[in-house]
Design brief:
Belongs to the iron/ascorbate-dependent oxidoreductase family. This is Fe2OG dioxygenase domain-containing protein. Keywords: Iron, Metal-binding, Oxidoreductase. GO terms for molecular function: metal ion binding; oxidoreductase activity. It comes from Acer saccharum. The structure is a single chain. This protein is α+β, with helices and mostly antiparallel strands. The protein has a single domain, classed as Jelly Rolls, CATH 2.60.120.330. Helices cover 25% and strands 20% of the residues. Strands 1-2-12-9-14-7-6-3 form an eight-stranded mixed beta sheet. A hairpin with an 8-residue loop joins strand 4 and strand 5. The radius of gyration is 20 Å and the shape is globular. The N terminus is likely disordered. Bound molecules: 2-oxoglutaric acid and fe (ii) ion. Fe (ii) ion (FE2) binds next to loops.
Length: 355
């Protein structure tokens, strides 16, 4: 493999063979349910509940709890983060992928997953018995650490300059939002509002992943991102205005996440599923491509650090709800994740007690 991306956005009306998935891994777009999407939750009357003891509106907690149990996903609106800032962030990401100078591209492009800052492509195994071939996903991703206070801008590319500038501001806002969401999710489980945050631990691991999906002439033959669950605790995803592509599994069927103006898509990662002893779900999802418009997304991940010990919260375990998972150090979980990379990942299952 070369040192820079081999991905050439094609202008032809067919896709190169290295992007073509075996039949059973294709998206089968006509089978995606058009009838439902994920819940949209309005945070308009929620003040954040930071330092006081106000309990949020019970109907808000019910909605959050229902979404977390049934979907593992929801969208939020009226979250207080300025739309203008989010649009600037999405524009900077598009520019980053579209006009990164070749020498910078070379500097960041890697196949080494341990790199802190990396531009990379996803691949999945082809599954054909006699082949080691991998199929490339129709996307490119750029991943790096983030922090609400510490300046991480020196790690980021200098082009476009607004990526560094806007990202710092965006990261602060997202951290506040994540704190609110972690409180709501804890309270939704009937726990103290700080419980989940404490369990995820001090010095959480914070990573950002920008995804770029160019228009694709044959969306039925490929995927933007393969089926996966997020291994962290909580993900806050922003998508470029008006372009859909994210799909989640609900009752065994693929459901498309509708575009909602100025909304964030929130999803629970594997660690919340384990901490909640299986009550809240980390749900399989994927990104599909479309013929007309490029799509840009930014996933902000919040998870434990490698030393945090994760396991079902004791208050959620009783004789009717025996612990489903053993306690583990998050480093074990990450190592298992990387062992399973490029396959359909079953990471948390490796920490599950046998029935
Ligand atoms: O781009 C999307 O819609 C999904 C991104 C995602 O699932 C991820 O980065 O983990
Ligand atoms: Fe994801």
């Amino acid at each position: 493999m070369g040192t820079s991306s081999s991905f050439r956005w094609t202008s032809s009306d067919t896709i190169p063979s290295n992007f073509i998935l075996p039949e059973k891994k294709r998206p089968h777009l006509s089978q995606v349910s058009a009838l439902s999407s994920i819940p949209i939750i309005d945070l308009k009357n929620y003040t954040g509940d930071g330092d006081n003891n106000n309990v949020p509106d019970s109907s808000l907690l019910e909605k959050i709890s229902h979404a977390c149990e049934e979907y593992g996903f929801f969208q939020i609106i009226n979250h207080g983060i300025p739309e203008d800032l989010c649009n600037k962030m999405m524009d900077a990401i598009a520019k980053l992928f579209e006009s990164m100078p070749p020498e910078e591209r070379k500097q960041f492009f890697t196949t080494d997953h341990t790199k802190q800052v990396k531009l990379f492509n996803y691949y999945i195994n082809n599954d054909s018995a006699n082949s080691q071939d991998k199929v490339q996903m129709w996307s490119e991703s750029f991943s790096h650490p983030w922090h609400p206070i510490d300046d991480t801008s020196h790690l980021l590319p200098g082009n476009p300059p607004d990526y560094r500038e806007v990202f710092g501001e965006y990261a602060k806002e997202i951290y506040e939002l994540m704190n609110k969401l972690m409180r709501l999710i804890s309270q939704g489980l009937g726990l103290e509002k700080d419980c989940l945050k404490k369990r995820v631990g001090e010095n959480p691991s914070l990573r950002a992943q920008a995804n770029y999906y160019p228009p694709c002439p044959e969306p039925e033959l490929t995927l933007g991102l393969n089926v996966h669950t997020d291994l962290n605790a909580l993900t806050v995803l922003r998508q470029s205005p008006g372009v859909t592509g994210l799909q989640v599994i609900k009752d065994g069927e693929w459901v498309a996440v509708d575009f909602a103006p100025n909304a964030f898509v929130i999803n629970l990662g594997d660690q919340i599923q384990v901490l909640s002893n299986g009550r809240y779900k980390s749900v399989h999802h994927r990104a599909v491509t479309n013929k007309e418009q490029r799509r840009v997304t930014l996933a902000m991940f919040y998870g434990p650090n490698r030393d945090s010990v994760i396991g079902p919260v004791e208050e959620l375990v009783d004789e009717h709800h025996p612990p489903l998972y053993r306690n583990y150090r998050y480093s074990e979980f990450q190592d298992e994740f990387f062992r399973q990379v490029e396959t359909r990942r079953m990471v948390k299952e490796a920490f599950q007690f046998k029935k």
